[in-house]
Amino acid sequence: MLAGCLWILIPALFRAKFGTNEVVTTILANYIAVLLTSYLTISVFKRPGGWSETDPIAVTARLPQLLPDSRLNIGLFIGIGLAIGLHLFLRHTSAGYAMGAMGAMGANPKFAEYGGVRTRRNVFLILLASGAVGGLAGGVETLGVHHRFMEGFAPGFGFDGVIAALLANGNPIGMIGTALFFGALRAGSLLMEVETNASREIITVIQAFIILCVSAQILIRRRSGRTGERRWKF
Known about the structure:
Layout (H helix, E strand, L loop, with lengths): L1 H6 L1 H10 L3 H23 L30 H18 L1 H7 L1 H6 L1 H6 L4 H28 L10 H11 L4 H24 L6 H32 L1
Helix pairs in contact: 2-3, 2-8, 4-5, 4-10, 9-10, 9-11
């Protein structure tokens, strides 16, 4: 989690100070992180005689499994607890209310500033928290599933998280259901390809269709809001 905070520090500073687009800067930073960890895994920490992976971690450091012969571990409850905790923080604390107003800030930052919200400070803290959550997710995957660090251990998981968040409209409780939904799609696609003639890439098509639907909904809302504003001005 500390490494996640440090890695997102530069994009967070650029977003808070210069207003740069955090989506672009963090995606670019992702490629650097992937290549850097690949180099470290292959050249520095590679297991002797193994592929692109480190030595296994100690058994005492592994997350307990929930079911025998399954990769399901207590990381599931860590994620659910994190979502519930975030929901309570946003709904029942003054700091959470200020950060919740950042949802409106995305469309109208002046609105949040007029309400007394320190937008730059909160943007910076939110991005640091997101980096910590990303590090936590990678730690759960490493300690609970693979029990070692592997090159390319999380192909596309971050983008799946973005889609799940969009589908839940940013609601932490709703993200629990959407995350489980996309997890089931990804896991089921492998078995579907084995048992049927369907390609697992159909899951990518479904995800793209969901993105289009959510994007269209956001666009319709914004256009409706602008139309209403123009009528009010008239």
